[in-house]
Automatic annotation (TrEMBL):
TPR repeats: 141-174
Gene Ontology CC annotations of this record: plasma membrane
Superkingdom to which the source organism belongs: Bacteria
Keyword Coiled coil: yes
Gene Ontology biological process: cell adhesion involved in single-species biofilm formation; negative regulation of bacterial-type flagellum-dependent cell motility
Single GO molecular function: diguanylate cyclase activity
Name of the featured protein: Diguanylate cyclase
InterPro entries: Diguanylate_Cyclase, GAF, GAF-like_dom_sf, GGDEF_dom, Nucleotide_cyclase, Rev_trsase/Diguanyl_cyclase, TPR-like_helical_dom_sf, TPR_rpt
Pfam families reported for this sequence: GAF_2, GGDEF, TPR_12, TPR_8
Amino acid sequence: MFQIKWDHKKLIAKCNNTIEKVDLLVLLSEKIENESPTYAFELSQKSHVLASQENYEEGIAKALYGMGRSSWIMGNLEEAASYLLDSLALIQTLEMVEYEVKALNVLGNINLYLQIYDQALAYYLKALKIAEYIDSTYMKAKLYNNIGEIYKELHDYETALQYYTQSLEIHEALGPESSKSIPLSNIGCTYWALEKYDLAKSYHEKVLILNQGSHDKMGEAYSLHQLGRVCHSVNKDDQALPFFQKSLSIFRETDDKFHEIDVLIDLHTLLLESQHYNEALAHLNRALKLAEETKTRAVIAKVCSHSVTAYEHIGNDEMTLYYYKKLHDAERQTNHYELEQRLKSIITQIKADETSQENEVYRLMNLELNKRANELEKKQSELYESYHNVKVISEVGQSITSTLDLDKVFHRVYENINSLMDAAVFGIGLYNEEKKIINYKFYMEEGVKGPGFSTSLNNKSSWAAWSLRNRKEVIVNDVEKQYPLYVKKRLQIVGTQMESIIYYPLIVEEKIVGVLTVQSKKKNAYTQYTLDTIKALGSYISIAINNAQNSQKLATEIQMRKEAQQALEAVNNKLMKLSELDGLTGIPNRRTFDEYFDFRWTKAQQEYSPLSLLFIDIDHFKEYNDFYGHIDGDEVIRQVATALEDAVQREGDFVARYGGDEFVAILPNTGSQGALQVAEVIQQNIQNLRIQHKHSQTANYITASIGIASITPNRMLTKEALIKISDEALYKAKEKGRHRIESIAL
């Protein structure tokens, strides 16, 4: 780039005057824009300063156009639109028709990026009309291609291919080879959308060679991106990844934010599918940052939508909700910006018509002056009415897309509908896709809210059902004559019979969310303008309903997950408790004893307090099991455990099953004398059970031997030593004939 700038500097130095410099700067800007739009903008900006100093209007117009085009390529759409509209006004005044075609084309491109397709088409068609008039074959080829882009975005691929083919045929007739790379590339993209991946690949490979041969860096990057998409679609991610990475590198080098965002989104998708979550999210964050830099609401919304999906996929509810709210705000701002653009367009038309009116009145002073003036005045009045209506729609749209309360949405729309059209009836039905039912939650007739009702999507006598089945609006100005076109028979479901009706399907991203209806008692109450108003209003209502339903769905899912988490925690707590208790007796087990003994030993050391440990063993239990069986043996274990719990009842005292027929008791703050008293109670409780044991060599009923060890812990003795001493005491009791208590004090 340094060498290019140096060469340009030498060329500019050779210019004889300022006007020559301006014209050269404009030319250099056009040539370098695809390689470095940032530098192209600098050149156009410099030419604008010089042209303004010389009051060189043609140069000013060209410079503004160059600044607008460079800004568009860099993704600064609002700035681009501002420069281009200023340029267009001057271009039209100076009758620079070739530049008028160019400016209209780029304005169409901006609206295409903003997804304002009707406005984009209007700009393209106006440019095409002028291009045909001045026989600009090259611009006709570009415009055919761009009109094809609109149809591709609207998924009408057959029509899109027709326009791309027209563009390609003109480019092939004109030459050079590189000029046909854009329609070829778009044909490849269309085949990719149609899932004809082999065809798509062959077109993109051809375009890549053309772009590399002409040193078109942006074109090369675009081709690499599309080849990456094709590879990813056929599960060849190892090939897709380098295509994406190389494309991304070039787009960053050329500062093409929009295409960089597209590549980042595709990279995130690939990485998300391969479970490289951190990398995938990093690419999305970069895409969102770029989108916010461009201030393009539609692109911000697109990135947020992918973020919602990504975080939902990895189970992060908090971030899912965060990006869902950002998506909601971006969609609301997108619709607001679209209406702002429409308002600007109407204001521009009003001003143009005011000027036209003045000129027309002057020219026709003596030729039907009054008639022409009245016609122009009527047209101006219609434009002001149009301005008012769009403003109302904008305000209503902002209001309803900023709330998630459907009742507020319905009432806000109804409050304003009659200022826009005759609406004796106004209703909104919500579509339940699972049940195939249209539920009218809000239905107003002559200011009175009617009861809710519903109808099936398969109802052949329902206007609303026809509208949703066919995804088309219904506009009828004489119901009696026109109803056979839509319904089998004319039924009166609710209220008074209406003569003019409109039904409009509410659709968001191919998903049907409901239907909107307005109805009048008068015939011929509605026009195409009324339908256009309903469409504008319907887009806001669709988003508001979708946002509310998605929010409710997300809230429900989060609540369900919380409840599931709580249930899981309860089960875990139960399992934890069960893991601490002996399954047969219900008293603490060996594991719990170990933990509690460790705690009591440490505490006794810290407080220098006595601690006693009792080991209890059922006498001749093996013989009992052998003679009476394991079922009765288990019952003995349970009853002995209960007898132990009854004897050891002080706060802090502890009894556990140590294993088999052996039990253990911990007596904090208890010396050998106190421990002996507790042991005697234990022995008496077991004796009182009077469980018969004919095969005992000690007594003819169940008895127990008990070993006691008592100590005031110090650092010289370990808790394991106390266990060993207690066990030795138990051994002594058994050795001396069982059914005894032996104690060792330290």
